[in-house]
Each structure stands twice: as structure tokens, then as C-alpha cells.
């Protein structure tokens, strides 16, 4: 799996979305499943999947799928 | 990185023009606010204590927002003792700002990394994810600053000693975060730690929720600190904040005993009879001031809490340092909101 596929999978698993649901345009709080509680699960899922530890500011700023991909770049994960 | 940097004079120099702008902004965009100010008369503003305040209780009786309905992104509610509920309206920008500034405030004492987190509460407060209690929302807001969260209480609210022991075995040798409401920490963590010899030495405790239940048991804030220090927990930060000024918290400094204002906030203590500002050492009604509220007029709020300023620019961090002494007895507070009720009519 590419990093992009792994990130999509982490989103679908953490937010409890169907396997075929597109996630690339998801935004925090815009999707009913991505609320503040799910956000914590999502961060944990991404950390597990990529073996990284995400800092507080990045958790706060992770407001979309695209932003999550960008943030992962800071931790050496090249999502594309 | 710290948001506790501004001396009192620098703070006033920086914040006062922003607050004067906020008064004008909210008058333009929130008709009830404008009516209240027009009715009570707006003085010329040359210092913090000149700013017109709203009694915090007004958010329970009036719809106070400075954004159009279609920009309301979140409505926060807080239950009061009387069953009335404050309604606080946030647009996207205000929601993002409050989260960011709360983050900056807490990172002053927690650092940039998310620490393993022991939550002195039960997971069942998050059961209904469509409507969290104020307690649930508080825990969830704080959860951002932690990772590997462990709940210290089981679903029935009983202490999960094995869970706490497991957490400490895994994370106890490095800094970790403990969060809980003050009386829960006292009842369920302190007692258990003492009884079972748990080592909380690497913990950083963040707690809030008021002292009333502890004062009823004759436990003062000083004793709380001293007794927790006896079980190894010496890094302790109480905080004071309210949903009506979401994102702004007043945080206890490392030495303990005083709350401090972040750089975007201030406090004024007022004489409950004359409303004049009281000097350090004189207890009175606490007014909280913050530049964060842009989507609702919560920038200058007269609380129903008694407080006292202990000193200015003479503590752990610059600015005023103060304590919250408890609630103003209800009968005494009635006068001020009646004034405003008649202005609304």
C-alpha cells in the first residue's frame, strides 16, 4: 500500500466509514462522523499506522484530510 | 513558548485598544448588547476597569451573538445551578481561535508533546456523543493534550485500581498528564494513591471545577497541594474558566496559590456595591476580560464569583495573580442582573 492508501485506510477505520467512501476531501466537523471524540481516535490511528508521535499543535491543526497528509510530511511520512 | 509574558502595563497597552474595538464590533453586530450599553451609558474608556461588562448570567436569558445565523458553527451550553443554560455561539474562526489559545496556554506547562494521560473520570460521561455534559466537554477538550488515555474510574464511577496501576507501570517513569475535576482528584486519586503507595512523581496535574465540595470537607487549596505533594505529585496547576469565555483559562503558576492571566486576558475585582475596582488584597466580584470572544459579546464578563488579586507583576508569571474565593451568595447578585433586565425591556 502507498502512504496515501494507508492514510485513507486510517481515516476510514477511525471514523467508521465504508471501505469505498472517498475521504480525500474530508474536513473536521464538516462530516458527521468526524467530531471531537473521533478526532482523538483518528490521531491515535494515524500514529499507530505510521509509528509517529504527533505534537499537540498538529493535533489542533489537523483540520482536513489534506492537512493530515501535510502534517505527516513533518514527521518524515511522504503522503502522495 | 509561553503566553504568560506581559507585564500589567504592557498588557493594558496591548489589550485595551483591541477591547475598545471589540466593544464597537459587538455593538454593531449584536443588537441586544448594543441596547444594554445604550441604556446603561458607555463611559469613555481609558483603562481596563472602564470597559462595560455584562453579567455572565445574561447568556442564560438572552441570545447574545455577533454573527449571522448561517455562520453559527457551534453552540456551546453550560448548565447552571438553577437549570438555566448559557448559550454561546461560535463561528468557525472563533472555534479555531479558542482551541488554539487554550492549547498555547496549557503548553506553557505541558510542553509541545502530548503526554500519556490519566483521566480522573469515567468514560461513561462521553456515552451520548450528541450531547456531552459540561464535564464531558471539559474532559474531551483536555484529551487533545494527551495520548494513550486511561480512565481512572470505571463505568460505575468506582476507582479502577488495576487500570491506574497499568498506566503507571507503562508510563510512570516519564512525565505524564493527569486531568480531573478537583473533587474527583481528591476523592479518587489522592486517597487511592496514599492508600496503595502509588508513585505519581512524574505526573503533571491539571484540575478545575471549583473548591466548594472540598471546602465543605475542610480541605483548603493549600492543603490540597500539600497532601498531593506527600504522594509525590508536586507539579499541580488549577485553572479557572467558563464556557462563556471559552478558550480563556486562568492558570495556577508553578509555585501554587495564585491564578495568572494569559497574555490575551485580564481580571478586575469589583466592589459588589459600588462596582469600583478594588485594589490587591480586597476581595470582591470577579470580572474576566479576554480578547478571544469575537462571535458573541463575552469579552468583558462580570462573574458571580468572589475573587481577590494578590499582587501585580510579583509572582511566577507577570501580570495580576489572583484567587477565586467561591460564589457570591445568590441574593446579593440579584441586584445587578435586575439592572440589566430592566434595560432589556
TrEMBL record, chain A:
Residues 5-70 form the Carrier domain. InterPro entries: ACP-like_sf, PP-bd_ACP. Pfam families: PP-binding. SUPFAM superfamilies: ACP-like. Gene3D superfamilies: ACP-like. This is Acyl carrier protein.
From TrEMBL, chain B:
One of its GO terms (molecular function) is long-chain fatty acid--protein ligase activity. Pfam families: LuxE (PF04443). Gene3D superfamilies: N-terminal domain of ligase-like. This is Acyl-protein synthetase LuxE. One of its GO terms (biological process) is bioluminescence. The lineage of its organism: Bacteria, Bacillati, Actinomycetota, Actinomycetes, Micromonosporales. It comes from the Bacteria. Residues 4-340 form the Acyl-protein synthetase LuxE domain.
Amino acid at each position: 500500500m502507498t502512504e496515501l492508501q494507508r492514510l485513507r485506510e486510517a481515516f476510514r477505520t477511525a471514523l467508521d466509514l465504508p471501505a469505498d467512501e472517498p475521504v480525500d476531501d474530508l474536513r473536521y466537523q464538516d462530516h458527521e462522523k468526524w467530531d471531537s471524540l473521533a478526532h482523538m481516535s483518528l490521531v491515535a490511528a494515524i500514529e499507530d499506522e505510521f509509528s509517529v508521535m504527533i505534537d499537540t499543535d498538529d493535533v489542533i491543526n489537523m483540520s482536513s484530510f489534506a492537512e493530515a497528509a501535510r502534517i505527516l510530511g513533518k514527521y518524515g511520512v511522504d503522503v502522495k | 513558548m509561553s503566553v504568560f509574558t506581559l507585564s500589567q502595563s504592557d498588557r493594558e497597552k496591548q489589550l485595551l485598544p483591541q477591547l475598545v474595538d471589540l466593544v464597537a464590533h459587538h455593538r454593531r453586530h449584536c443588537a441586544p448588547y448594543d441596547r444594554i450599553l445604550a441604556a446603561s451609558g458607555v463611559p469613555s474608556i481609558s483603562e481596563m476597569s472602564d470597559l462595560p461588562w455584562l453579567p455572565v448570567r445574561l447568556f442564560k436569558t438572552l441570545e447574545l451573538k455577533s454573527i449571522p445565523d448561517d455562520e453559527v458553527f457551534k453552540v456551546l451550553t453550560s448548565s447552571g445551578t438553577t437549570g438555566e443554560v448559557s448559550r454561546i455561539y461560535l463561528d468557525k474562526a472563533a472555534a479555531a481561535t479558542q482551541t488554539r489559545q487554550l492549547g498555547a496556554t496549557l503548553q506553557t506547562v505541558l510542553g509541545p508533546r502530548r503526554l500519556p494521560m490519566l483521566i480522573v473520570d469515567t468514560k461513561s460521561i462521553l456515552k451520548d456523543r450528541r450531547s456531552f455534559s459540561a464535564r464531558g466537554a471539559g474532559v474531551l477538550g483536555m484529551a487533545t493534550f494527551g495520548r494513550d488515555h486511561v480512565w481512572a474510574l470505571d463505568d460505575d464511577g468506582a476507582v479502577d485500581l488495576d487500570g491506574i496501576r497499568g498506566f503507571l507501570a507503562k508510563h510512570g517513569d516519564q512525565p505524564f498528564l493527569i486531568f480531573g475535576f478537583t473533587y474527583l482528584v481528591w476523592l479518587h486519586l489522592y486517597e487511592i494513591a496514599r492508600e496503595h503507595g502509588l508513585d505519581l512523581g512524574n505526573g503533571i496535574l491539571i484540575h478545575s471545577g471549583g473548591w466548594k465540595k472540598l471546602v465543605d470537607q475542610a480541605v483548603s487549596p493549600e492543603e490540597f497541594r500539600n497532601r498531593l505533594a506527600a504522594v509525590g505529585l508536586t507539579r499541580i496547576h488549577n485553572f479557572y474558566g467558563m464556557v462563556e469565555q471559552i478558550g480563556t483559562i486562568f492558570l495556577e503558576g508553578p509555585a501554587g496559590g495564585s491564578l495568572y492571566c494569559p497574555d490575551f486576558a485580564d481580571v478586575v475585582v469589583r466592589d459588589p456595591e459600588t462596582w469600583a475596582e478594588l485594589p490587591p488584597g480586597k476581595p470582591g466580584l470577579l470580572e474576566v476580560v479576554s480578547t478571544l470572544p469575537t462571535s458573541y459579546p463575552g469579552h468583558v464578563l462580570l462573574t458571580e464569583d468572589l475573587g481577590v488579586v494578590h499582587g501585580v507583576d510579583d509572582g511566577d508569571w507577570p501580570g495580576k495573580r489572583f484567587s477565586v474565593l467561591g460564589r457570591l451568595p445568590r441574593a446579593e447578585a440579584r441586584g445587578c442582573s435586575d439592572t440589566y433586565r430592566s434595560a432589556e425591556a
